[in-house]
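Notebook entry, structure prediction.
Reason for the run: the old model in the group folder had no record of what sequence produced it. Starting over properly, with the input documented here first.
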Amino acid sequence: MEKPAFSPAELARGEALFRGPCTFVKGVVSVADLPKDGRAEVAFAGRSNVGKSSLINALTGRTSLARVSVTPGRTRELNFFTLGALYLVDMPGYGYARAPKKAVKGWTRLIGDYLKGRRELKRVFLLVDARHGIKPNDEETMKLLDEAAMSYQVVLTKADKPKASELEAVQAKVASELAKHPAAYPQVLTSSARMGSGIEELRAAIAALAS
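New structure, fully documented this time:
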C-alpha cells in the first residue's frame, strides 16, 4: 500500500505547528464543561492500550504530556491540550473489560454526547493497532461516528511490530473496511511512536485541519 503523499509545504506546516507550545488545559467529564471559545479541535480515540498517549507524546515531542500507563483505561475524561489555534483532545480508551461497568457507561455516554453536534471538532483520529486491525469494539466506535456524521481517520499504531507483509495486509484490509463507512476518511495513516515513523505525516494532516 502506498504511503500517503504530503507536499513539502504541508509537512513544513505540520512541523511548525508542533514546534510550538502544547499545554494541558483541563479534563472534562461532562459536556457542560467543554471549552466554549470556538477553537478548532481534533480528537484521538482508540482501544485501551492502543498507544494513544505514546502517539500524542511523540507528535508533540514531549515524554509525559499525555500520561502513558501499562494499566489500560487510565484516561477517564476528555483531556484538552492547546496547540496553536487547535485543541488536541485525548479521549478515554474503550474496550477495557475490567473497568467498572458504571465507569464504562459513563465514558460511553460522555463520548457519545461529545461527538454529537460538536461544531469545533474537525476530525477524530481513530487509532487501531497495526498488529490486529479493526476489532469489534473499533467497529462499534466507527458506527457511532457514522451516526454522528463525524469525520474520522484511521491511524495504525505500533507499525514497527508486525512484519512488512503483515502490515501491508492489515493496511489493505482496513482501507477496504473504511470504504463501507460514510464518515470515514479514506486515507489510512501508519505510525510508530517508538520509531518515530509516520509522525511527520500525521502532523501534516492535523495542521491541514487547523488551517
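Summary: The chain has one domain: 8-210.
The old model has been moved to the deprecated folder.
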